[in-house]
Amino acid sequence: MSDSRDACDNRSLMSSREVSRRGLFRGLLSPAKKVVEQTASSEETLLHRQYPRPPQAIAEPLFIQKCDGCGRCAEACPVGILNIHEGRPTLAIEYAECDACGACTSSCESGALDASVVMDTGLRPVILPQCLGRMDDLCRMCEIACPRTAIFFNQQNQPAVDSAKCNGCGKCKLVCYHGDIILSLKHHDS
Ligand code: SF4
Ligand code: SF4
What we know:
The protein has 7 helices and 6 strands, in the order H-H-H-H-E-E-H-E-H-E-E-H-E. By secondary structure, it is of the alpha+beta class. The strands form 3 sheets. A two-stranded antiparallel ribbon has the order 1-2. The longest helix has 27 residues, at 3-29. The termini are far apart.
């Protein structure tokens, strides 16, 4: 296994731990009812998006109203995956994944990004027909890399994505060195 793969795995583990710690802390402070409400509203939050947004963007119509395009979130993102496009932040996973660090949300003063929103970029992987893993079981890079076990191959070597488990981090796309995974918006109503 390569050093870069090890580094990637370590980073993923650290991110998971950070998220878990944050989640635990939040859980201790929040009543259980609020957690249920947040989970139920996460689907609605992703509706109507024309572009991928920072992972804790509020529902798109409100987001458009509240976000003033200041660009603080894009400056705060340690991996540089946010850009201001048409006056609002969009997220592009080309060279780095979103590890749900929350720096963008913390930097936002307008309320357009909100720590109570379930972390989800709204992106979901589409595994293309030419994926090598579909031919035999020699490649399972995306399945192995996914920190949320959202990708699995069946006994006929055909992959599937559990959209409810996936949070659109994009790690699967980055580990596929054949470029056979694209990310598309979960709800794209254009
Ligand atoms: S959660 Fe972190 S990595 Fe993801 S977009 Fe926001 S600042 Fe960037
Ligand atoms: S399937 Fe989803 S959660 Fe898993 S690596 Fe891909 S984008 Fe991330």
